[in-house]
Amino acid sequence: MTILDQILEKKIEEVQTLKLAGLNYKSSLPKNEFSLYDSFKHSDALSVIAEVKRASPSKGDINIGMEPSEQAKTYELSGAGAVSVLTDQPFFKGSMDDLAAVRQTIDLPILNKDFIIDEIQIDRAHQAGANVILLIAKALDRERLKELYQYAQSQNLEVLFEVHNEEDLEDAFEVGAKIIGINNRDLKTFQVNLETTERLAKQITNPDTLIISESGIKTREEAKRVAKAGAEGILVGESLMLSGDVTQTLSELKIEVPSV
Ligand SMILES: O=P(O)(O)OC[C@@H](O)[C@@H](O)c1c[nH]c2ccccc12
């Protein structure tokens, strides 16, 4: 059983519990006025989605004691275009409280990074103040991906549709995804390879699609490499969570996008 299978098995339990308990997140801030798509499409530098990530199954504890709202504020002040909050508890040690706290602190689009398999998680993301949700092609079949994509849209949430290979990309096209995240990390083996972005970005020919390169990006050279491949945004967790100087690290990653 792969780690993704294990995570999804736990998610099914979590969703059952959630349905029994009901939702109780109330964000006091206005939502839905932040569009990650619009802000990234209008930027002429490579935009960064900076991630609040305490731990991961591949790395163990990364920065377990940080204060999510402080971390997110630093991201905002350092020029991040959006903030991602990992809310999975069993494998990433995050929570929806982390996301709700971040919502109170920043005025940027917030991505709820979780393994979404059911509408109730989308409602929860909405209530907690997220603007964008993640849908992972590998996690569900095409029909279900389509349903959840449409449900998120009906709730005025944007969707980052995550792909890792050609088959996933077909799903993205079928679903009509406007924002495609190319994950350089294989969720089954944890191997990271930036060539994934180079290979898949080439196959996305619609200029309206926003391409985000995800995972394993640590240096300016790497950011340049994925930008050259066609990414207009990058999703960065670990290197920012471990950085002693977030402002410096972010400014190194925000490079001019080469004109194509
Ligand atoms: O910490 P990194 O290597 O910079 O990666 C960030 C982000 O891409 C990664 O956390 C991620 C991408 N897709 C996911 C799906 C689930 C959980 C986590 C992820």
Automatic annotation (TrEMBL):
Extract one GO BP annotation from the record: L-tryptophan biosynthetic process
Reaction catalysis annotation: 1-(2-carboxyphenylamino)-1-deoxy-D-ribulose 5-phosphate + H(+) = (1S,2R)-1-C-(indol-3-yl)glycerol 3-phosphate + CO2 + H2O
EC number assigned by the record: 4.1.1.48
SUPFAM superfamilies found in the cross-reference section: Ribulose-phoshate binding barrel
Give the UniProt keywords, A-Z. Answer: Amino-acid biosynthesis, Aromatic amino acid biosynthesis, Decarboxylase, Lyase, Tryptophan biosynthesis
Q: What pathway does the annotation place this protein in?
A: Amino-acid biosynthesis; L-tryptophan biosynthesis; L-tryptophan from chorismate: step 4/5
Which PROSITE patterns does UniProt cross-reference here?
IGPS
UniProt xrefs under InterPro entries: Aldolase_TIM, Indole-3-glycerol_P_synth, Indole-3-glycerol_P_synth_dom, Indole-3-GlycerolPSynthase_CS, RibuloseP-bd_barrel
Q: Which Gene3D superfamilies match?
A: Aldolase class I
Q: Which residues form the Indole-3-glycerol phosphate synthase domain?
A: 4-253
Q: Which GO terms describe its molecular function?
A: indole-3-glycerol-phosphate synthase activity; phosphoribosylanthranilate isomerase activity
Family from the record: Belongs to the TrpC family.
Can you say what this protein is called?
Indole-3-glycerol phosphate synthase
* Organism whose genome encodes this protein: Aquisalibacillus elongatus
